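Example record used in the benchmark description.
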Amino acid sequence: MRIAMIGGGYVGLVSGACFAEFGVDVAVVEVDPTRLAALREGRMPIYEPGLEDLVKSNVAAGRLTFGADIAEAMNGAEAVFIAVGTPTRRGDGHADLSYVYAAAEQVARAMTGYAVIVTKSTVPVGTGRRIAEIVSATRPDLEFDVASNPEFLREGNAIGDFMKPDRVVIGATSERARATMQRLYAPIAATEAPILFTGIETAELTKYAGNAFLAMKVTFINEMADLCERTGADVLEVARGIGLDARIGARFLQPGPGFGGSCFPKDTLALVRIAQEAGAPSRLVETVVAVNDARKSGMAARIITLCGGAIRGKTIAILGLTFKPETDDMRDSPAIPIVARLAEDGAHVRVYDPEGMDAARPLLPPSISYCRDAHDAAKDADALVLITEWNQFRALSPTRLATEMKGRTLIDLRNVYDPAAMRQAGFTYHGIGRP
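Model output (structure tokens):
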């Protein structure tokens, strides 16, 4: 098969490379000249484990190409995926669909024969129907179908999620569209991964509902962590106790400073607006958005209190800036409001992240010091704060940290470290939801 992928960002690039690995000819369209040049030179515009090797091998095999011409990419394509950004729209929280609709119109003008137009971007309910209207209005002569195929990729594990998914959801209304998508996903079907065919609206809503439910789990365990701190319970044991219930499950029950990233903040807010406009408001999701925003903004106040109530002139080391490990994504990271507040209150803030520092620079105050590694950040620090649980931070020696730092305050916002080991090394250790 041959397909076109409109958008060489995170979703489009990962999906395109993985389809190519399955033997599909994939033409990725990227209009940003800087990003396109990087892709053609084999340089990845994002950090994702294994992606660079996957892209290079499939480019070498001739199955994966990059260009800016939609018409050229769609020549012979049986399906064209729209994988452009849907950022939060300023002012009202809705998903901005301007890029999606512009892509749909360009696709319509470039089509020369039947193809399935597939939304891979996260889009609100009704977007597929609107795309069909746009294409029909642009080219009344065309024969086409529209389908929805939402992505469920976790940053840091995206290739594994694509190759061995929990499920594939495909929303389509015609047998021809279903048959095309079934052939495209045949290699995954052979692994016995569930492939769920639904209506277009159902597929669109499934993406939002899934992310909102996971965001609720994160927010729930964060609130339980606060309760544990007031009652003397241990949130890690509470999480294990409830996670062993098969109806609940253990995943996404790790307390922390609040969720961030490209999906949860954007999608929960969009779902709130979708539900409000439909006349069926989701009070649970509304609360999740409010509680998470308050948690992220309140983390800096927690750190200041644990540092004695005043941090002016103190040196604070920050380990981890990205919203999660194994990515360079800084979007809505809890580190942004935390670092900004610490700097605003007069602290000398020294930061280190294995992959996210370039992306963090334009988002953080100019006074921030960027360090070579974790030990460089910790040097002469009065306090150390772990925000993102990169594996390399788990292996840090408590005794070495104690010799490098000036102070002995360690604030672990991910519960990575053993409290007993840290206290034995002389630290005053503070976790999340632990006695």
